[in-house]
Design brief:
The structure holds two protein chains of two kinds. By secondary structure, chain A is of the alpha/beta class. Chain A contains 13 helices and 14 strands. The chains are: A alpha/beta, B mainly alpha. The interface between A and B is medium-sized, with 30 and 30 residues.
C-alpha cells in the first residue's frame, strides 16, 4: 500500500476513534477523490456525508450519531483493505511577485506599500497578516490583477509556462474579496453555472458540484438563495464557487472575518486540505487578522506593518529570532502586581491591553522561572500564551 | 427567473438545467425561459383577444383597438424590464469564464429577439380581435353590403350635398361624361362657385342663374321653385367606395369593379328613376340598417314616396335614421379596417423604426453587460454631452450639419485609435473604456455617418452617379425647387438604404465580436485604484 494512502487512513482512523464524523467524512471524500478508487465507493462516501450533513443541519446528530459512526466504521473497514493509486499532480511554482509596490496619494490619506517579493507553489499557503490599513487587501488586489502596480512585476506560471495575459490568468485563479458580491438564484444553480463557464460540462459538472456541496457541508443549503443564507454560509458558497472548478490559485481576503470560532477552525482545516490535495494541489493566499489561526495552516507568512513587510518568509523562521520572549498573561492581578513579579529583571516591558498583559523579556530569563514566580505569589492565572514564535510578537514596537 | 421556473413544466426545467451545465453562454441569455414566457403571454393575450366582446352592430373602432394595444403594452413593457434585469444577473465574461470567439454573434441576435418579443406579442390580441371582426361578415357578403349601401344611399339623403340640379338629362349626361374624364367638379346646389374647371359654359351660366333660387326652394321652400319640386340628380363620385380601401394609402383604388357597378346603377337611376329597382334597393338598405345598427322602424314605402315626390330634404329622414345610417357606415368601415388590418398596419418606416429601436436596446444592454455600471452611466453622459455640444455649435454658427458630422467623424477616428491601442494595453484606463463605449454606440451607424460626411463635404452620392449633377431647378409661380431625376433619386435612396444595412450587418458580424474581445481584455486588466 502506498505511503500517501496509509497516511490518509491513519488520519481518518484517528478521527473515527475520536468520534469526529465531520472530519472523518471530509477526509474520506478527499482520500477517495485523490486516489483511483472505484466510483461506487466515492458515491457511498458521498451518501454518508449527505446523511451526516442532513442530520447536523436538522439538529438530529445526537440521535443518528451512533448509526452513522457504525456506517462510517463499516465503510472504512471496507476501503482500508484497498490499495488505490494516488493521482499525483506535479507541484511547481505557480506565481511569483518581484518587488511589487503601490503608492496611493490623495488629499485625505497617502499610503505606500513598500516592495515585496513573493513566491507561491502548488500546495502552499501564504498567510498575509497585519493590522487594518497596513496594505493586506492592496497586496492581494495586486496579486490577483485587480490593482495595477507602481513598480515590480507579477508573473503567473501555468504548466511551467509564463502567462502575461490577465484574461487568461483570471480564468485560472480565484479571488474572494472580503465583501462578497451578491449572487442570484440558488446556490447549486450558481455552482453548476460557474463550473460550466469554466468548461466543466455535464456529467462531470454534476459530480463536481455534488462533491463540493457535500464536502463543504452545504447539503441542506444547496437550494438556498443569497437572502436565505447567513454571512458564514455565503462565504462557504463563495468558496465552493471557487473550488468547484479547481483554480490554480485561491486568493482570499479576510475569509475568517465573519465566522465564529468553530467555523473558523473548519474553514482553515478545509483550506489546508485543499492545498494538500494530491490531485489538485492549490496555491492559497489569504489575509487575516487572526494571527494565531492563520499561522497554524500557513507555509509562508507575510506580516505587514505600515505598508512594509516586517516579516516575509517561512512560518518556522519566525522562531529564529527569539532573543526576546513574549508572553500574554492575565489573571486576578493588576499592573502593579505583575510589575512587582519582574522587579528584579532587566529589559522587561509590560504592555497592558483589554484582554491581557503582554510581557517581553530577554531570553536570558526562563519562562519556567516566570511561571514559578507567579505560583510562589499564589496568583491565579486565567490566560497564558507564549507568542515568542508567533507573528503576534511582530505587533510589538520592536518590529 | 425562479418564478418562471416554478410555473414551468418539467421539460422546461430539464432544458434549463441542461443548458446551464452544457451551454452556459446560451443559458445566461435566458432565451429558453424568455421564449417560454413569450408563449405563455401569447396564449394569454390571444385569449384576451378571444374574450373581448364584439358584435356586428358594435364593431370595435380603430381607436378602441389602439387603446387595447396601448394597455397591453404596459405588461409587455414590464416584462421587457424584468427580462433586462434577469439577463444582467448572470455574466460569463465578468466571471472570467471560457468563451469561444464567435459566441457573441448568436448571443447578440438572441438579445435582439429577446427584446423584440415583448414588443411584438401585444399584436396577437389585436390580430385576433381584428380577425374576429373581419369574419363577422364574409368578404363576398361584405362587398355586396358595400354595393347595396351606396346604391341604397341614393334614397336616403342625409346631406345637402347628396343631390344637385341639372336643367335636363342631356346636361346631366354631359356633366357626367366630363366628370368621368376628370374635367368637372360636382355642381352642388349650395356651392358658392362652380369653379374654373367646369367646362361647359352653358351649364355654368344655367347653374349661376338658378343656384341661389334652387338652394332656397329645395331646402327652405322659398324663391322661384318654392311651389314646385325640382328634379334633382344624385351626385356621383369617381370612387364611391374609397372609404373602404384596402390600405391606408388614399390613392389606392382597390374596388374599380364595385365602383363601376355602383356608378352605373346610380347614373342609370338618375335618368330612368325606375321605382321598382328603387324599391329593391330601399329594401336592401333597410336590411343593412337592421344588420349593422338594429334599426327596424323604417317604412320603405315612405322613402320611395319621398323620392317619387322629389323630397330631397334631409328633414324627411329624421335624426334617428340619420344616426343609424352613420352607424351602419361606421361599423362597415371598422369591419373593412379589420379585414385589411395588416396592410393598414404595414409601413416600411414603422418596421425600420421598430428594428432600429430594438437593435439599439440590444446594443445598450450589451454595453451594460460588458462594463461596470458607473462606466455605463458615464458613457451615456459623455455621449449626450458630445452630441449636444456638436449640435449646439452647428446650429449656433449655421454650419448646416457639416460641423456636427465632421466632429462626429473626428471622434470616431480618435476612438478607433484607442480601440486599436486597447488590444495592447497593460493597464485599464477609463479613457480607453469610454472610447470603446462610444465606438460601440457609433459602429452600427459608422458607414452611414461616413456616407453623410462624404455627401455633405464632397457631394459623394452625386460623384457616385458618374459625377453628373442630376438635379435641375424648376420654377412654379414664385417658388423654385430642385427636382431630381427619378432614377437619380432611386439611386440615392438605394445608396442610403444599403449603407444603413451594411452598418447593421457589419456590427453584428464583425464589430460586435471585436468589441467583446476588447471589453473582456479591459475588464481583466488591473485598475489604477
Amino acid at each position: 500500500m502506498n505511503v500517501e494512502l496509509q497516511k490518509n487512513y491513519q488520519v481518518i482512523k484517528s478521527y473515527l476513534v475520536n468520534g469526529d464524523l465531520n472530519r472523518t467524512g471530509i477526509h474520506l471524500m478527499d482520500t477517495l477523490n485523490n486516489h483511483s478508487f472505484p466510483d461506487e465507493l466515492r458515491q457511498q462516501a458521498l451518501q454518508l456525508r449527505i446523511k451526516y450533513n442532513s442530520a447536523k443541519d436538522l439538529d438530529k446528530l445526537k440521535e443518528t450519531n451512533e448509526t452513522l459512526a457504525l456506517e462510517y466504521n463499516k465503510f472504512f473497514s471496507l476501503i482500508s483493505t484497498i490499495d488505490a493509486q494516488p493521482y499525483f499532480a506535479e507541484k511547481q511554482i505557480i506565481f511569483s511577485a518581484k518587488s511589487i509596490s503601490k503608492a496611493y496619494r490623495s488629499q485625505l490619506r497617502s499610503f505606500t506599500l513598500e516592495p515585496i517579493n513573493l513566491e507561491l507553489s502548488h500546495g502552499k499557503i501564504i498567510g498575509i497578516v497585519g493590522e487594518n490599513g497596513n496594505g493586506k487587501t492592496t497586496l492581494l488586489r495586486m496579486i490577483s490583477g485587480d490593482l495595477s502596480l507602481n513598480d515590480g512585476e507579477v508573473t503567473y506560471y501555468f504548466n511551467g509556462e509564463e502567462e502575461t495575459d490577465w484574461n487568461v490568468i483570471k480564468q485560472k485563479i480565484a479571488f474572494i474579496p472580503q465583501r462578497i458580491k451578491r449572487w442570484y438564484g440558488s446556490a447549486i444553480d450558481n455552482l453548476s453555472f460557474i463550473a460550466a463557464t469554466k468548461g466543466i460540462k455535464h456529467p462531470e459538472n454534476k459530480e463536481k458540484v455534488d462533491f463540493i456541496i457535500h464536502r463543504l457541508g452545504l447539503t441542506n443549503f444547496r437550494d438556498h438563495t443569497w437572502n436565505q443564507l447567513s454571512s458564514g454560509y455565503r462565504l462557504r458558497v463563495e468558496i465552493a464557487k471557487a473550488l468547484v472548478w479547481s483554480p490554480r490559485v485561491l486568493i482570499l481576503d479576510e475569509p475568517l472575518a465573519n465566522l465564529d470560532i468553530n467555523s473558523q477552525e473548519l474553514m482553515l482545516d478545509d483550506l489546508r486540505n485543499i492545498a494538500d490535495s494530491i490531485r489538485n494541489p492549490t496555491g492559497i493566499i489569504l489575509s487575516s487578522q487572526q494571527l494565531h489561526e492563520v499561522e497554524k495552516i500557513s507555509d509562508l507568512i507575510i506580516f505587514l506593518k505600515n505598508g512594509r513587510a516586517v516579516f516575509n518568509g517561512d512560518v518556522h523562521d519566525i522562531a529564529k529570532d527569539n532573543s526576546i520572549n513574549i508572553i500574554e498573561i492575565s489573571g486576578n492581578f493588576d499592573l502593579a502586581a505583575i510589575t512587582e513579579i519582574f522587579s528584579d529583571w532587566s529589559d522587561v516591558k509590560i504592555e497592558p491591553s483589554v484582554k491581557a498583559f503582554q510581557v517581553s523579556f530577554p531570553n536570558t530569563y526562563s519562562k519556567h522561572d516566570l511561571l514559578q514566580r507567579i505560583s510562589n505569589r499564589k496568583l491565579d492565572v486565567e490566560y497564558y500564551r507564549d507568542i515568542t514564535n508567533s507573528t503576534k510578537k511582530l505587533f510589538n514596537d520592536k518590529y | 427567473m425562479n418564478i418562471i421556473l416554478k410555473i414551468s413544466p418539467p421539460f422546461v426545467r430539464r432544458l434549463d438545467s441542461y443548458l446551464r451545465t452544457n451551454y452556459p453562454a446560451f443559458w445566461a441569455t435566458m432565451f429558453h425561459l424568455n421564449l417560454y414566457t413569450a408563449i405563455l403571454m401569447l396564449a394569454l393575450f390571444s385569449l384576451l383577444g378571444l374574450l373581448i366582446g364584439i358584435d356586428v352592430k358594435d364593431v370595435p373602432t380603430e381607436k378602441y383597438v389602439n387603446i387595447v394595444f396601448a394597455l397591453l403594452f404596459i405588461p409587455a413593457t414590464a416584462w421587457l424590464i424584468f427580462m433586462i434585469k434577469q439577463l444582467s444577473l448572470f455574466n460569463i465574461d465578468k466571471g472570467f469564464g471560457k468563451r469561444k470567439n464567435l459566441t457573441e454573434f448568436p448571443v447578440f441576435i438572441i438579445y435582439f429577439i429577446t427584446f423584440a418579443l415583448p414588443l411584438i406579442i401585444p399584436y396577437s390580441t389585436i390580430c385576433i380581435l381584428n380577425f374576429r371582426t373581419a369574419n363577422l361578415v364574409s368578404d363576398k357578403e361584405f362587398n355586396e353590403d358595400i354595393c347595396n349601401y351606396y346604391k341604397g344611399k341614393m334614397y336616403f339623403p342625409t346631406s345637402i350635398y347628396d343631390y344637385s340640379y341639372y336643367p335636363n338629362d342631356t346636361f346631366y349626361l354631359q356633366y357626367e361624361s366630363s366628370r368621368k374624364n376628370g374635367n368637372a367638379i360636382p355642381v352642388a346646389t349650395n356651392s358658392k362657385s362652380p369653379g374654373d374647371s367646369v367646362q361647359n359654359e352653358e351649364m355654368q351660366n344655367q347653374y349661376r342663374d338658378n343656384a341661389h333660387d334652387l338652394c332656397d326652394s329645395i331646402f327652405y321652400e322659398k324663391g322661384s321653385f318654392s311651389h314646385s319640386r325640382p328634379y334633382l340628380y344624385y351626385n356621383i363620385s369617381n370612387n364611391p367606395t374609397s372609404s373602404f380601401r384596402r390600405t391606408r394609402d388614399y390613392s389606392d383604388d382597390s374596388n374599380p369593379a364595385l365602383d363601376s357597378a355602383i356608378n352605373g346603377f346610380l347614373c342609370h337611376q338618375n335618368i330612368a328613376r325606375d321605382e321598382r329597382a328603387g324599391m329593391e334597393q330601399i329594401l336592401l338598405f333597410c336590411k343593412l340598417l337592421k344588420k349593422y345598427s338594429g334599426t327596424e322602424t323604417v317604412d320603405p314605402q315612405t322613402i320611395l314616396r319621398d323620392y317619387h315626390n322629389h323630397n330631397y330634404n334631409t328633414s324627411y329622414s329624421d335624426n334617428y335614421l340619420n344616426c343609424s345610417i352613420d352607424e351602419v357606415y361606421r361599423n362597415m368601415q371598422n369591419i373593412n379596417y379589420a379585414k385589411y388590418f395588416l396592410s393598414y398596419m404595414y409601413s416600411q418606416y414603422l418596421i425600420v423604426f421598430f428594428f432600429v429601436f430594438v437593435f439599439f436596446i440590444a446594443i445598450i444592454f450589451n454595453i451594460f453587460k460588458n462594463v461596470y455600471w458607473k462606466q455605463f452611466l458615464l458613457g451615456a453622459a459623455i455621449f449626450a454631452i458630445l452630441a449636444t455640444l456638436l449640435l449646439f455649435f452647428d446650429v449656433l454658427f449655421n454650419y448646416k450639419f457639416k460641423f456636427f458630422i465632421t466632429g462626429t467623424m473626428l471622434i470616431v477616428l480618435l476612438c478607433i485609435v484607442f480601440f486599436i491601442r486597447g488590444f495592447k494595453a497593460k493597464q485599464y484606463s477609463v479613457f480607453m473604456n469610454q472610447s470603446t463605449i462610444l465606438l460601440n454606440l457609433l459602429f452600427p451607424i459608422l458607414p452611414f455617418l461616413l456616407l453623410t460626411y462624404l455627401s455633405t463635404s464632397f457631394d459623394f452620392i452625386s460623384w457616385l452617379w458618374y459625377g453628373t449633377d442630376m438635379s435641375h431647378v424648376s420654377a412654379v409661380y414664385d417658388y423654385s425647387y430642385y427636382k431630381f431625376d427619378p432614377e437619380y433619386y432611386r439611386f440615392k435612396m438605394n445608396v442610403i438604404w444599403w449603407t444603413f444595412w451594411a452598418g447593421i450587418i457589419l456590427y453584428v458580424v464583425l464589430w460586435n465580436t471585436l468589441l467583446k474581445k476588447l471589453y473582456i481584455k479591459l475588464w481583466a486588466l488591473p485598475r489604477p485604484n
